[in-house]
Amino acid sequence: MAYSEDHIALAAEYALGTLDADERAQVETMMAVDTEYTALVHAWEYRLGALNQMVGSVEPRPIVWENIKAAIHSSGQQAPLVLPEALLSPPRPSTESRVEPVTAPVVAEAAPVATDNSNVIRLSDRAKRWRNVASVATALAAALVGMLAVQVYRPELLPEALRPKPRIQTVEVKTPAPSPVPSAQYVALLQRDGGSPAFILTVDAATKNFTVRKVGADAEPGKSFELWLISDKLPQPRSLGVIGGSDFTARPVLADFDAGTINSALYAVTVEPAGGSPSGQPTSAPIYTGKLIETVPAAAAPR
Asked: From the CB of residue 13, how many other CB atoms can be counted at a distance below 10 Å?
């Protein structure tokens, strides 16, 4: 089935999780009644999930941690570093240079100069290198996020090797002869207080035939579910018949109403005595309600 650019964009944004509640409900309704659209959404989820796997963790070699611990342990046992007085005093002019006798106390104080601080220097160098690695990893993560956005919205800007590869799936489908005039398709989820759908109502705009699919409701013994059309264009609710006991109930009774009434009406299900309301009017308050939304526009209907 061919889909418009808006429907394809909805599938992509659903996979990204950027839709609001109403748009997510529209996509989930289309997925509930259209297996090909479900496959389109799953294709986007697969494509974006593969990009997420490109970001891998970077772990140092085990020897790096052992060297760091050894360097810390070694530096903790070293004597404090004491600079000789000769380094603390400014150099004398060469004209006054002379040989001075060296006494024992001077030699004793100069001994700490031999302290080996190479481990501290190496540890500092390693810390700098790991800071550089962390900076590079942060930059790579930001680049991957940017590449992901470009790959979703402007894949033509990427090199050929980085463009998402289309998934090609061959499916043998036996379909009836296509309608000579493309028609729009409408769906309503009949549910209670935003809960799980109890019935799914599908309406073909061209033939005005409707189908009710039972997905989560069972009638009590001696009772029947009855479908009603409620519109401010009508003086009272109009019965569309009793919903049968099988999973699907199809009827052409919407042919008596114009398109405006059909598309804007509220569809409701009540519990009635077995066989339906004896008076032609609801005998109880509706328990499931819903309104039609367009899932396949006329321009995108199969030819």
From this structure: 17
Higher pLDDT, 156 or 59: 59
Residue 13 φ/ψ, nearest 5 degrees:
-70, -25
Q: In CATH, what number is assigned to the domain containing residue 286?
A: 2.60.40
Taking only the tens place, the pLDDT of each residue in 14-35 is 887 888 888 889 889 989 988 9
Check: CB of residue 219 under 8 Å from CB of residue 271: yes
In-domain check, residue 284: yes
pLDDT digits (tens, 9 = 90+) for 99-142: 454 444 444 444 454 555 555 555 555 455 445 445 545 655 66
Q: What total number of domains does the chain contain?
A: 2
Q: How far apart are CA 22 and CA 290, in angstroms?
A: 14
The 185-190 sheet, strands edge to edge: 248-251, 210-214, 199-204, 185-190, 293-296
Pairing of strands 238-243, 288-291: unpaired
- Top pLDDT among 18 and 275 is at 275
| β-bridge partners, 270 | 226
Provide the whole-model pTM.
0.41
Residue 226 DSSP one-character state: E
- Domain with 31, as residue range(s), is 5-53
